[in-house]
Amino acid sequence: MITQVINVNEILKQALLFDFYGELLTDHQKEIYGQFLLEDLSLGEIARDAGISRQGVHDIVKRCEQALAGYEEKLHLVEKFMTVKNKVKQIDELLDEYEKERREDILSGIRILSGEIIEEL
Amino acid sequence: MITQVINVNEILKQALLFDFYGELLTDHQKEIYGQFLLEDLSLGEIARDAGISRQGVHDIVKRCEQALAGYEEKLHLVEKFMTVKNKVKQIDELLDEYEKERREDILSGIRILSGEIIEEL
């Protein structure tokens, strides 16, 4: 169960990195790694489609994972976007609370969050 | 006057690109281009400090500008951040309006913007 959660998080993380930095990969890398990551094809299936060895696909996948992780290590833009997205979700949650009590607290909460996001960007 | 505005916007744009993608430049490029862009030193001053020719500094600056523009052309992350930042500023402006009339309109406006931002990210 824990393993499954870790795997799911890992896949989501890889998909985010691919979404942010994928255009910095070569077209060939993008095609192979995209099939592996998004189309959930096995290394063997991808190898057959691409006419390369299973090991070749494996090497490309590893190289892409390293390249994308390297871009995030340098730029931290996925991390930055996730921080902002989380704050905006908190704004939405505060709006959901609006019909309840302490309306002014909620509005000042939104104000604080929006200010933090502007600082972040 | 128009020329000045264009120049200011151009400098801001270059500073944003450098802020987002600068870590993808080499240390040498970062140092030279950073001095040119952020410390407002002349090519001659930078050349003397770095012990290279004025032309060498000029070439590095041009190469950095092209590299950073190339990253934005592929990733569009500065554009994305600016869109989000603009929407959050609109949320702040709506909060400023709150004390006036049509409070529910303002809250639904914030809701729409925060939803758009979550879609964006």
SSE blueprint and pairings:
2 copies of one chain form a homodimer.
Chain A: H1 2-21, H2 27-38, H3 43-50, H4 54-75, H5 77-97, H6 103-120
Helix pairs in contact in A: 1-4, 2-4, 3-4, 5-6
Kindly give the count of domains of chain A. Answer: 2
Q: Share of helix among residues of chain A?
A: over 70%
| Beta-strand content of chain A | under 5%
Distance between the termini of chain A: 37 Å
Instruction: Write down the oligomeric state.
Output: homodimer
CATH class of the largest domain in chain A: Mainly Alpha
Distinct helical segment count of chain A: 6
Please state the overall shape of chain A, judged from the principal axes of the Cα atoms: elongated
Chain pair sharing the greatest interface: A-B, 26 and 26 residues
Rounded to an integer in angstroms, the radius of gyration calculated over CA atoms of chain A is 20 Å
**Average pLDDT, all residues of chain A:** 85
Low-pLDDT residue intervals, each spanning 5 or more residues of chain A: none
Protein name (chains A, B): UPF0122 protein DFSSTS7063_00465
Family (chains A, B): Belongs to the UPF0122 family.
Function (chains A, B): Might take part in the signal recognition particle (SRP) pathway. This is inferred from the conservation of its genetic proximity to ftsY/ffh. May be a regulatory protein.
Keywords (chains A, B): DNA-binding
